[in-house]
Design goal:
The chain is built from four helices and eight strands, in the order αααβββαβββββ.
């Protein structure tokens, strides 16, 4: 029994050593991996973090602003849409956001799937049926703790 434990320990040490070499990129050469230098300031000036308005139109699945099919409260801020998912912040309370969407989607003829509605500790999720795509509209919100809510809206097969 003692012999098998010793063999097992040696095998594990060899495997750990091989894993360390694979992770560090040493590859058994004994040389330290080469570190690539950072780009110069001139090179980084050409990198844009946020697309311009023209670039956003080239990529219709990515947009800023309130150009969305979903209703948004008047105070919606930081509105982004990526691949059909809309995200924004509002100063409305959790209850007010839920009332806003219940009223807005009821006026459009959509029905709330009450079985899927949840509210807990500053978080809510509400689902509406009736969208022309056949998918459900899923709305989720999180109280950010600073007097604002983060709200996410998307179409989903539920």
């Amino acid at each position: 029994m003692k012999k098998s434990n010793t063999i097992f320990a040696l095998v594990m040490l060899v495997l750990a050593s091989l894993a360390c070499q694979a992770v560090t990129g040493d590859g058994g050469s004994g040389e330290a991996p080469q570190i690539q230098p950072l780009p110069s300031v001139e090179e980084t000036e050409s990198i844009q973090q946020i697309p311009t308005e023209e670039e956003a139109q080239e990529y219709p699945e990515y947009s800023f602003g309130s150009d969305t099919e979903f209703p948004l409260p008047d105070d919606a801020q930081n509105v982004t849409e990526v691949a059909g998912t809309v995200n924004y912040q509002t100063k409305l309370s959790l209850d007010d956001v839920m009332k806003f969407y219940r009223d807005a989607f009821a006026s459009l003829g959509y029905t709330e799937r009450e079985l899927l509605t949840t509210v807990s500790d500053g978080v809510f999720s509400i689902v509406f049926d009736g969208h022309e795509s056949g998918q459900a509209i899923v709305i989720q919100g999180v109280d950010l703790g600073d007097g604002s809510m983060n709200v996410n809206i998307r179409l989903e097969d539920v």
